[in-house]
Amino acid sequence: VNLKFGVRHPEARTGTETDTCTACAGTLILEFAALSRFTGTSIFEEYARKALDFIWEKRQRSSNLVGVTINIHTGDWVRKDSGVGAGIDSYYEYLLKAYVLLGDDSFLERFNTHYDAIMRYISQPPLLLDVHIHKPMLNARTWMDSLLAFFPGLQVLKGDIRPAIETHEMLYQVIKKHNFLPEAFTTDFRVHWAQHPLRPEFAESTYFLYKATGDPYYLEVGKTLIENLNKYARVPCGFAAMKDVRTGSHEDRMDSFFLAEMFKYLYLLFADKEDMIFDIEDYIFTTEAHLLPLWLSTTNQTISKKNTTTEYTELDDSNFDWTCPNTQILFPNDPMFAQSIREPLKNVVDKSCPRGISRAEESLGSGPKPPLRARDFMASNPEHLEILKKMGVSLIHLKDGRVQLVQHAVQAASSLDAEDGLRFMQEMIELSSQQQKEQQLPPRAVQIVSHPFFGRVVLTAGPAQFGMDLSKHKAGTRGFVATIKPYNGCSEITNPEAVKEKIALMQRGQCMFAEKARNIQKAGAIGGIVIDDNEGSSSDTAPLFQMAGDGKNTDDITIPMLFLFNKEGNIILDAIREYEAVEVLLSDKAKDRDLEMENMDQKLSENDSHKQNSEEATSASQDVGAVSEEPEEGENSDVTDPDSLSPAHADSDSVSISNQDSYVPGTDEASAPEPACTQGDHQPQEQKTETESNSKVNWDNKVQPMESILADWNEDIEAFEMMEKDEL
Fold it and tell me: Is 460 labelled a binding residue?
């Protein structure tokens, strides 16, 4: 809702949203039901229930899992990975708590159905790993985000204490290693995202585990949290979020949830009964640790409780225990129960962090070498994959095109193969860390400079860690593009005549980037563009991608190489299909259109809106007249002039790529007569001189009235406004 214009007013610009996360849609029922119960107005609870019903109906029926992001109009899953962390977490929490607060059996039945799927597919004790909803046996990633730290607390509420203790202990070991829980960490407990915005989920689970077990161990855990906060996060005006848990650097922020949740749970953890001015057992916590009274379940019941849940899976009866467990039942005469579960996990973090092979050890050749070296590994090689499988190493293809490796020694063919797998992983970790230490290069630009784009289209490109450094060659590399054969560029190019003196287009995959570069350079290409083979990938949503070398000396590669994601690459491919001859500029940043091109575009605009001006231009010069009367010849011939890239008045950064054609007048002029291009190719210097001199004639002999200039400006403004409207 736009607070100024409402929903339906055009200026509100609402109604364009299409997606929401599962937690966003599924974390309304407690507050909205409370609002209905307090006010006696049922509409709030009705709509919150409708949102929950919608998600339940759209669950994946075979796995009973839900995705992270859903299209609010169609109900299609946009992101089809499923876990218990970011994007889903509080949906599960509110199903169980809605049953506790409102007493509706259908909420508990839904929660238990989901919980069975979570424990079947996502829970890999002590880890909780995201999976694909359609292929739940396949992990979607090999890292976990810190928001899943709430889940042990929810398991306590459910009464499933053992896995809660296991996951909580694993998280505590990560905290002891890094002082705080990183925003994301890998399955071998390395930092994946280093931030920590003082999240309270781990403190929440610590409080609930202490309530369930009475084990003083969890008081020690709470003490550690407080000491770390005071030692590392406390600043003169409060507590600062950690920018990087590895360096201890701060961000200038303290989120409201830190006060609402962290301090509250820590206070309750250490509070004695006499410290409380009310009975905490009479309330339930919302996901933001606000308290709602349990008596709401019997107040103003405007919604008829009926079981709308359908199509349940046959589950273990114990999963449907509807009584709240207590410590006497959970730990019969065994105060050491929780400790016995924690003990095997005491060193899980340190044991799972393999020590990198030192260069001294490698040079001495100590120990046997694995049958496959990390630097030789190719993800597309079936023989390599078979060796990995034998060593207990599994390969996971991520959505952004990267590949992750995970080793499970128990899955190796033998103990010797498991040792080989460990050595391979150690080599791979060192190789990866070396690449990460290399200087991160800034993004590059691919600018389409031929008709009808003239530099208006600028595509964000990833750099290569080899080949020509475009930051040191300010002019960049300019040329027409050509698609190579084979398209993957992994063998000798079979159409060198089409590639020579051109910028080669090729597809990602099948071989190393450096190998592609060598093959097109041998065929005579002056540059290369690698297009991502992952459908729908885009620089808008994916992080900057750098093309690494092949671990060997790449000094022999002298041409520039750039990487385009799938969406940006298709823009060039579509341009080739429509205009055939497409010229691009590879550079460190987009170049502005020069004055000459601006004057030419101005004359074209005058030709469209002021016929008399074209006649004057014709009398001034026959060549300039050709530009005015036949814009396609003039434009096409001038494309070959290296100095004329794009109209200076068009800000390429602000122009939407998807709507370029709506801005360019007369896009059907692509079928310009070929001789004009030929003439421009053979006589670029003459063409430039004539155009410059004719520009002088026009400005010296024909003084434009202010009204005409303003009219031209207004046309440009209207064109940009139309583009913005089309974009919306």
Answer: no
